[in-house]
Amino acid sequence: MNYSIELNNAQRDMDTKITKGSKAVEIFSDLISGADMNKHGKKKDTVVAHLKDLATRSMAGDTMAKSELNSFVRIAIQPALQTRINLFEFMGRFKKIGYSEQPMLTQYKHNTNSNRQAAQGDVALSTVEKFETPLATHTISGGFAVNYREVASGNLTDIGEGMEQVKIDIHNKAMHYVMVTLYNEIKNATGVKYFAESPGITKDAVDDVLRKVRRNGKPGIVGDYSVVSQLNSFQGFADKAPNAFSDEALEEIRNTGLLGTYSGAAVMEIPNQYDRQKLNEDGSNYQTVLPEGLLYVIPQGNAGHYPLQIVQRGDLMSATGFDVVTGTELTRFDLEIGAGIVDPSAIGLISDADFDEPVV
Known about the structure:
Blueprint: H1 23-33, H2 43-59, H3 63-85, E1 93-97, E2 104-111, E3 127-134, E4 138-146, H4 148-152, H5 157-187, E5 194-198, H6 203-213, E6 219-223, H7 225-228, H8 237-240, H9 247-256, E7 261-262, E8 265-269, E9 274-279, E10 286-288, E11 294-299, E12 308-323, E13 328-341, E14 348-352
Parallel strand pairs: 1-12, 5-14, 6-8
Antiparallel strand pairs: 2-3, 4-13, 6-11, 7-8, 9-10, 11-14, 12-13
Helix pairs in contact: 1-3, 2-3, 3-5
């Protein structure tokens, strides 16, 4: 018997191989970001030709070509999006697990029973108990319409803009989910909790919550600009500057509009864009993507104690489908996130009642 083996297969060309860190993905990322392509030489032409071929086959309904083009987009998006998601480390313990793993909330209870000295025998020693409870996850989705005809002509502008929007959209939704989870669990907690609510952010409330939370670890102050900017007036910046501030503090406020620290706690603004699809109640402005009136005081991990725990399950997933209503091909990306609080009494929350109560 005579056998024929086909070796000339573009899908197996190393120049177009799709893996994390591969040359093809690097070239694709540079193409959509407008970077200098001279460093890639002739390999750039090979990848562009391959992308055009994928787009042409996708227009003809080739599902394998759509899947491969999706893989280029997904792997190019993943690192930049992951960098943004990793910022959750500032708010608590962030952990990434595999799809096959069960997300868990982990709590350590320290039983301190030691005496100053042994009484007729050995001293009683401290113990640590570990408790784990299942953590529910929430799927965060984003996507954009793909114009295969544009890609087939070599124009990657639409894909580049769509990828950037996916990164912003998924990160904003994930941050919103975490912030609202924090708010609901702290406000509705029974027993000891450090929660205050009043019109405006008051100095007395911030000082009181800082004093209580500090014993759980060095605190950080986190919130939207509308609440963290109110800290400026606590030190007299609004009515006594420049006499009330050092030159360094004044320069910091001039550059950022915010104090970098307050009473020894780092102040961090959570970026919050407008949602241009929604207007506020009187129609005078757009709503913001994230809640505006929440100021969190979060301890930064003291001896393994992380009251807020955030879990990412797996990597970014993608899927493409045809929208019969608009006649476009839609590419959707999903990211599985879970968040929970093991100790509501360890985190402080001050709610500015001048803003609407946050909802999921």
